[in-house]
Amino acid sequence: MASLLGNLFILAAPSGAGKSSLIKALMEKYASNSDNAMEVSVSHTTRKPRPGEVDGQHYHFVSREQFEALIEQGVFFEWAEVFGNYYGTSRVTIEQTLHRGIDVFLDIDWQGARQVQKLMPDTCGIFILPPSIEVLEQRLTNRGQDSDEVIAGRMKEAVAEMSHFSEFSHVIVNDDFATALNDLEAIVISQRLRTMKQQMRYQPLLDELLGSA
């Protein structure tokens, strides 16, 4: 694969850790800055839309049959089944966005992250942890979206999800939201300043500087 100017970030976390809120806040902070372009990948899923979710904006909502057909066509960068529903990311869309110099954020689980990192080892993996198991359960309860039975299932799944934190290069504990957001921004900035990325971005300048000797 050719070198990509944009950076690919994976954010994974147990449900209720605040991952989606952190991504949204980061996008809003940089929305008006064209020099720091970033996008959140819109995944395909077979689950039903939640109240307020828009097809094509939050997810591409498809049937199970449609999703399985896309798998056969090799459309997905990664895909996984979570809580009985399929989730997947379009590989072509991601690569086209990265080639345009735009950073892409994938909101996926550890299974998807493992698939992506095999294909693109340069990916920056970030895992979001809650400050405690009690806080995580309270956050899920406060959503008011799920039954006690569903929450119990999510808590069990959360422990399994968190056991894979060491597969990611960065870990953020989301206790104070503002601090966690600053930590996330620091990781993004650090990733952008790596020599390999800076060399691609500033090759004409480097040629001029080194050629003047």
Overall description:
The protein starts with 7 loop residues before the first strand and ends with a helix. A five-stranded parallel β-sheet has the order 2-7-1-8-9, with helices on both faces. A four-stranded mixed β-sheet has the order 4-3-6-5. The longest helix is centred in the C-terminal third of the chain and has 16 residues. The protein is globular. It is of the alpha/beta class. It contains nine helices and nine strands. It has a domain of 142 residues: P-loop containing nucleotide triphosphate hydrolases (Rossmann fold, 3-Layer(aba) Sandwich). It is found in: Cytoplasm. Its EC number is 2.7.4.8. Keywords: ATP-binding, Cytoplasm, Kinase, Nucleotide-binding, Transferase. This is Guanylate kinase. It is an enzyme of class 2 (transferase).
Keywords:
single chain, about 210 residues, alpha/beta, Rossmann fold, 5-stranded parallel sheet, 4-stranded mixed sheet, 9 helices, globular, EC 2.7.4.8, Guanylate_kinase, ATP binding, GMP kinase activity
> Segments where pLDDT lies below 50 for 5+ residues?
none
How large is the radius of gyration?
18 Å
CATH topology of the domain at 6-40 and 102-208: Rossmann fold
**Name of the CATH architecture of the domain at 6-40 and 102-208:** 3-Layer(aba) Sandwich
Strands side by side in the biggest sheet: 2-7-1-8-9
The CATH superfamily name of the domain at 6-40 and 102-208 is P-loop containing nucleotide triphosphate hydrolases
Average pLDDT value?
91
Order of helices and strands: EHEEEHEEHEHEHHEHHH
- How far apart lie the N and C ends? 33 Å
CATH class annotation of the domain at 6-40 and 102-208: Alpha Beta
What structural class do you assign from the helix and strand content? alpha/beta
- Identify the overall geometry: globular
What percent strand? 15-25%
Number of strands: 9
How would a textbook summarize the main sheet?
A: 5 strands, parallel
InterPro entries: GK/Ca_channel_bsu (IPR008145), Guanylate_kin-like_dom (IPR008144), Guanylate_kinase (IPR017665), Guanylate_kinase_CS (IPR020590), P-loop_NTPase (IPR027417)
Domain Guanylate kinase-like: 6-189
Catalytic activity: GMP + ATP = GDP + ADP
GO molecular function: ATP binding; GMP kinase activity
